[in-house]
Inverse folding.
């Protein structure tokens, strides 16, 4: 079943395809009385918007959001909030090639295998364009948990990783890569340009930190905060890996090394480390929540690759059109949005059970 | 809310604590007419059972499963299947220390922060003992998707990884580490012994492969197979990282390298690679499903570590008692079970929507 | 939590208020490959449309539906179907009275008690206008279960009930009351006119029958077909009672009278009666599904009634504006839609579990 | 799909058949810190227990509940509460007749049509025995909403209804019929005896009132309190009708008659009537919640009735064994339990969204 809803009590449902008339989200379960208008959502969409630099797709979308319901006199009413973003730049082109042959790495073959056919225009439902709906919904989620600050950045493009010693929060929004390391950003400019010109693409690692999450949010086992965050991150197009805290590196540590020791602190414990990424037993410890997300390289590349047609014949395909040379870059606001959506949901769930 | 249910139409709910009278699971939505008795479940539990070697906890549990409902004349009836495993070896001991002080890396502090108090006996609900319920439920799930073969193994303990060249499927059940590389298994014997004797513990990486999954299972976006598998794996105690296919390594590849090229094959495409781990756009491609799961080192260690008490005073704590020196080892049957549970659910969902 | 989603695998979510820019629904889980365009939905909306006779509200809404996603080349793709209906005739008026004083029988006071404030324009989310979204979604549901024929009608307005001896299916769409008894329709004309002129309103009973539902759809207990239909019907504005089969009358029968005896039939049993309304143990028996639904009289009446203001002061209020003198009449297409939505969901669920 | 879970955040799942080893429920999402032991549940089970008078089935079940998880030191921990009741009196008998022929009015044929076969011993999953699990879960729910008082009674057996003028709350637990009218109880003794001796059975109407529900619980539309209560009541075996407030009688009222007028009161409005049954727009108004539930006559009767066999041959069947002559009587504690379960869930949901 194509479930397109995420969340338990603060829930959102997205709809829309790359080349349909519009995309959107319905946010349900939002508390009433929160100040909300389009201006509170638009800046987050603008951060994700395509066409803002030569390092993202050249599709020109204003990504102007409209609130169609759930808000009255500038405040949420507690009823579903319908958000719509019109598709403006669905450039008419010839899709006959992609309609007939499967692009390796893409969802083309899998969709055909599942549904018998597919909307091949620009990737249809599997297009990264869907993530604009998440960012819009995420902007609402942020308002539900105003005490939380969520900050993501690109940690690596391809095999080139930032130097933690250079980490500067102020840099993140100062370059087209959401890169906190100015030196790395300079290198990436060349690197991404080269990939773009070669008709190739690059993967990326996005890191995210949420501070201000109170100890106690989350829940054991099947609603573990780790599990919800992993599901949220993995639901984003092109994501193939998630780590909470030290993640795979923790597997190489000993129990003593991995233990986040505690000392008496002002409010609860003062932790001496945060290998756990702020989550123990699925529940927030009050430390910063930390996660890392791996984006594979964009599947749409100009370089021709071996494939087959719908009829099973051998073929070669090159994906012409406008594509992100590194889809992970614009993943930054999307990861932030998903984290906000998980935390808003968990905040309400915690209040439900624990008052 | 402490959701303890997993799945959408093939669903299971687990209950029980380490030191209560029993643990169990209720499996709902199982198709009718499937041959099922305790003997079909017990072997899987036996693989996970504690106390079978000196490399796992010395708690002695027979882990004998009883089917209390949902089966008649040896076949599933389509009604909920209640599975119960009695706790036998809840050794009486003095819990005053762990009741008062928080074990770093453990769920102790987080549970107290959330619920105001906790069942401190043996970890309560956060104990790895809960995973026996998953293995029992997973045994039922396997019967729902008999065409699928699911196989997990330990790929690394601490920083010592197997040599893929030595991979031998027959080895996996031939040593106490579920290790497919005989040479590595020999090294790990020493390594785990050393950690155990030092009162330390080790992390591990578990890999899993599911073959026979037909192209088409899974669904876009919020029910992406990647997302469901990540949520499933991350819901296991001590797991902090999940990768599908190449995972984080894919982030370092170029689009051409990462493309799983296709040639005409006997049934659908013959893929030339499987960087995607058998999933594209959230939907199975028919290739083997591949994932990797990172287990942190067991938090319960004999080495004393700095901590605080419930009253906020400075303290030191060493976790006496019987613990797995490397909880990832017994994670192998648990990862397999979770993969089986996800696939059974997705198989039914696919049938619901696509006939 | 204001859950605005209905269904388990064939699910829909509605959004929108009476006086916002639009209302709509997102249908998720629809099987792929079903022929669908606006023309397949519009006729059902036209049946529910206000302003078609003097016996319904005089609000003039074209209720033109737009499909924004989930359809490609005239067929459903298996991805979410977004349906939108613009609000055209939100006549500007002075809402100061209704903003300040609670209309008895209305949701006004309850919304304020829950949310702290409310969108008072035309009833906001509690307006019967929301049911247009259900009718649109229901039109899609019908296409999922084409073997089923769903037919509802008004059985009583106020205390005036049709004569079963006069039942004529062809009459139902031949008068403005969806009344299968021409004689009753004639009487109702006067009755509803009188109520309208007196500034009063009337309740109604709607009956519904679904034929062609195969034995086996439905499920025991918490997803009993009776339970799903009751939830569906009771979720409609103004509904306060539901009966399956003989309903309350069955409580006055003896076991022998109530037993639906069986004889050998062509395909399964030939039933001699249908007291159970086509459902036994929560599962369809293959007989027609029969239910009855009670609509209370429209709460919006011109007759002034005693009430209080938001500040707790005594007041009197008369609801001016355009209202249905008998909201049950336009309930007919809504009940049909909800039955279609339940059956589409159950059809897919049955296929999921029982193949 | 045989969903056996009810509730959104306070959820319970039941399992078990009439003649299996045990039945039970898992309660999930219960707030932590609530005093709970078996003694807090047992009295509610004792009220429902069979064999306590000659007017209920003569099956002798102690219905002793055991808490297997979720409670520590006499308080709920916030983790799932597993409740188990052993089946003791599964009298061995010859089921060959009922295995072969379908009992009219029973779930026999429908189960076979759905699942291909069924557990025919004592009704299997469709047995009223399952309701013991609901009563146990409901006892926990009551503790979640201690401010609410829930009281149900039998209002009619067959066509003999109580006289409201005789209503005496103290009578309800003073006779074997949960009848608030002593005169009616006397009449019913004869009536039920006569039915029992004739091998017949009787239907019943159960009424229920919940006081102390604060204005604001509930939610619009698909989680309307009316809808949740209707689904809950209709999920009980043998229930075929539900009314909220005046229910079907409201359909015969005019808008003025049905309006629950308000005057200034001490805390919120003083209502002059309660036609709405304490719910407007799906949300509690603070008035008593009132509902009525119709139980059909027990399907198991000694009188032989015409039927068919599994092979489609004509047959006649009489249901020997121990059965309730009027299953609605023991429905009283079950309706109360379901109302408690709905209200506990809604209380937590309200807290989630509205703080």
């Amino acid at each position: 079943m194509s479930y397109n809803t995420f969340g338990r009590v603060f829930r959102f449902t997205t709809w829309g395809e790359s080349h349909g008339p519009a995309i959107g989200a319905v946010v349900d379960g939002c508390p009433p009385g929160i100040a909300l208008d389009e201006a509170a959502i638009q800046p987050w969409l603008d951060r994700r918007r395509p066409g803002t630099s030569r390092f993202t797709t050249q599709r020109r979308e204003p990504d102007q959001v409209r609130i169609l319901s759930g808000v009255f006199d500038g405040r949420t009413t507690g009823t579903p909030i319908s958000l719509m973003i019109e598709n403006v730049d669905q450039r008419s082109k010839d899709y006959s090639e992609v309609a007939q042959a499967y692009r390796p790495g893409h969802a083309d073959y899998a969709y055909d295998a599942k549904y018998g056919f597919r909307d091949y225009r620009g990737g249809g439902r599997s297009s990264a364009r869907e993530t604009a709906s998440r960012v819009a919904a995420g902007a609402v989620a942020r308002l539900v948990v105003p005490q939380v600050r969520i900050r993501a950045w690109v940690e690596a493009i391809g095999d080139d990783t930032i130097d933690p010693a250079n980490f500067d929060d102020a840099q993140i929004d100062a370059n087209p890569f959401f890169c906190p390391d100015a030196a790395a950003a300079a290198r990436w400019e060349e690197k991404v340009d080269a990939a773009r010109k070669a008709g190739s693409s690059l993967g990326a690692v996005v890191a995210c930190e949420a501070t201000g999450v109170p100890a106690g949010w989350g829940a054991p086992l099947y609603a573990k905060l780790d599990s919800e965050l992993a599901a949220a991150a993995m639901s984003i197009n092109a994501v193939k890996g998630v780590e909470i805290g030290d993640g795979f590196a923790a597997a190489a540590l000993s129990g003593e090394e991995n233990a986040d020791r505690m000392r008496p602190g002002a409010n609860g414990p003062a932790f001496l480390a945060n290998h756990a990424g702020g989550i123990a037993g699925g529940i927030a410890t009050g430390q910063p929540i930390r996660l890392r997300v791996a984006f594979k390289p964009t599947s749409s590349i100009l370089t021709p690759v071996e494939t087959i047609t719908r009829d099973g014949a051998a073929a070669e395909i090159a994906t012409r059109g406008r594509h992100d040379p590194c889809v992970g870059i614009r993943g930054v606001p999307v990861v932030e949005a998903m984290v906000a959506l998980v935390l808003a949901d968990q905040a309400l769930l915690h209040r439900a059970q624990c008052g």
Q: What stands out?
A: Residues 182 and 297 of chain A are 22 Å apart (CA to CA). The helical segments of chain A are 38-48, 96-100, 108-115, 131-144, 182-197, 225-234, 255-258, 331-354.
